[in-house]
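Subject: mismatched residue count in predicted assembly?

I count 595 residues in my input, but I want to confirm that the predicted structure covers every chain. Input:
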Amino acid sequence: MSAELEATVRDRVAQVVEDVAADEIDLDADLADEYGLTSLNKVLLLTVVCDDTAVDLSNFTEHDLAAMRTARQIVTTLSAHKERITHV
Amino acid sequence: MTDSIINRIVGTPPAPGHHLRIAGLGGGPTVELTEVYAAAGRVAARLRRLGLKPGDRIGILAANCLEWVLLDLAALRCGVVTAGFEPGKFAPDPALLDRYGLALLFTDRPEAAGADPRLRPIGEVNTLAADTGAVPPEPVGHPPDAITTIKFTSGSTGEPKGLGASVGSIDSSLRAVQQMFTHGPGDDIFVFLPLSLLQQRYWIYSALAYGHDVTLSSYEAAFATMRRVRPTVVMGVPGFFEAAKRHIESQAERGGLDPAEAGRRLFGDRIRYLWTGSAPASAAMLRFFDANELPIYEGYGLNETCIVTKNHPGASREGSVGRVLPGKRVLIGPDGVVSIAADHPVNVRYEYAAPGESERVFGPGGLVRTGDLGYLDEDGYLFILGRADDVIVLDNGKKVIVRPIEERLRASPEIEQCVVFCPTQTHLVAVVSPARQPADAEAIAAHLAEANEVLAPDERIHRVVVAGTPFSIGNGLLTSQYKPRRKEIFNMYQSEITSIGEGVHVR
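Triage response: the counts match. Full output below for your records.
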């Protein structure tokens, strides 16, 4: 898992949650239950993280989005896509 | 019948060159409207062959998709009545078919397949549409009082109420909207709310009638797909636009961008206007979009009335919900309660509702008692003050309309939603859904103090209960239209509302 990608996700989650610093974000916390992110917040989060990391958002479906419940799952899913890009 | 828009779109192929695009997160097909029309004709032929006759009913319980559109248009063509069920709110089971007298129910819920032969996977519509040998039936001519669909109201409690929608009411709304917004070639209307809401299907009908593009997306995909689609119009609700506002502000601040530029990055660079309805919008949100090159227009209407008023280019007044549409009349009772009369009422009673509900809401000739308090200004703009049943009568006899107070509290960036209660008839208690977690109790208290300074003594909030988890559709505290469910919120926070020491207090 790329440290750079993890830092980006932490940073963007902290931007939405605000009162929690990026390095204090619990990667395994449920984004909805623990940090109060709505599904709209979550898709906005994914949009900006994809922009930051040059991953094409159209790689993901609504089902993928629903499955990404924690920051770590976002990092892992985006890492897989980045690796795929690298190896093509 | 010749001037009926519904009859025109089922009887006449649309102008070539305009498209229906399906925009999921991962993309989707784009289909020329002439092909949508032709495919709907083939589906209509196959529905007839399945034994469906004019007046029979089919249900559709599925997320937005091309098949939904084809079924709806096919049903209109052969006089079959649709019932659109919102996913998540209804279960695709035989009981649903029996309750609503459905011959078939098309659904995208795979678990339903096989439970009953009347339950059909919605993907089957593609097979029906692919039958190029099917001869489309002659379109039925709908008289103005014909019912084309059953629509359901998201009441605050119990079973949703259902009522049939007349062709005359649909025609009248489509015509009035077109007069105000002149949709046409070059426009692409972005629809992400469920097609089970009849008004969202209007934009498909509008595209066929007036020759423009329409994009069908989903609630989850909307924010991610708008900039790719570059629509000219976005149909939304206040909760959606509030989330967009926060995102734009945050992106602008972080990237040192002009908010108008951050807005273009989210909505695309072709927006002509944004449409908001279904729930009251905050003045701050409306001002924000207007100030950032994204004109937004609020309107007013109920399921029972369809669109009654709408601000629009050239006739928009801050704080109002616009002027009354042609064919509608707003009557203000001596108690300030708004009633609506129409040349073509949606209906004159519910088909599905608790005993007495039709009599409570509908008056003679389809007059609808809205239960909202409002007034018309000297230029005919309607202002909604709140719900008649949201008026709190204090023990000193003073009446307090809670909605303006709730809006004042919601002006805080810390507060997403707010509902005011009066547990003892002496002082007001607000339950707020915080905009972020953990909630900033200090900031909420500071905003409360500021709000109280400008409120009349009887309108001041004594205490705020901060909801542990944000109100959402999932936890049952918001309706599907993102309106707070007052009764459910009271039930969930009853002990905090009534306990003297609980919550954030005025400093």
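Chain A has one domain: 3-87. Marking this ticket as 'not a bug'.
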